[in-house]
Predict the structure.
Amino acid sequence: MKTTKIILLGYMGCGKTAVGEVLKNQLQTEFWDLDRYIERKLDTTIASIFQQKGELFFRAEERKALEELLQIETPLILSLGGGTPCYYDTMDFLKSFSHLKTFYLQTEVQTLSLRLAEAKSSRPLISHLENIEQIQEFVGKHLFERNPFYLQAEFKINTDRKSVETVAQEIQSQLT
Ligand code: S3P
């Protein structure tokens, strides 16, 4: 059985987009980042969607975008937003597809927090946090709440202290 859709999921800052870019080049397969798709479709940024329309509007658009992209019949690599698996019945929805594999990029709170501290302005859920201690506290609690969704992925790939290339290689080794 051939995998035709690769879904990358995990918390903000786990490297979904970076790993997706590497896989795209290695597998010569179309790659979409769900946030970028939404930004193009609505011609705005994720930050301004949150600001102007609110999070619930964003979650509905996010689910719609996921459904649209999964209609593509050719092979596809798709990186989700950090929250995508945690709203509606999205994990069950993903599991309903054949030829689709889900990969949870599992990353320690410490690593995520350090990465997010450098790029928090574009991420509305954490942009109000003032320092690394607050980010760590937030990420620790939030990841605890989200893990039950993420852990439903078919494959769990630990990314700590690994290069993007190594993570991409581990994903490739699970494709048949
Ligand atoms: C979110 C993660 C973001 C983006 C939005 C909400 C979340 O995507 O979808 O800011 O709820 O975790 P990334 O995980 O690509 O940063």
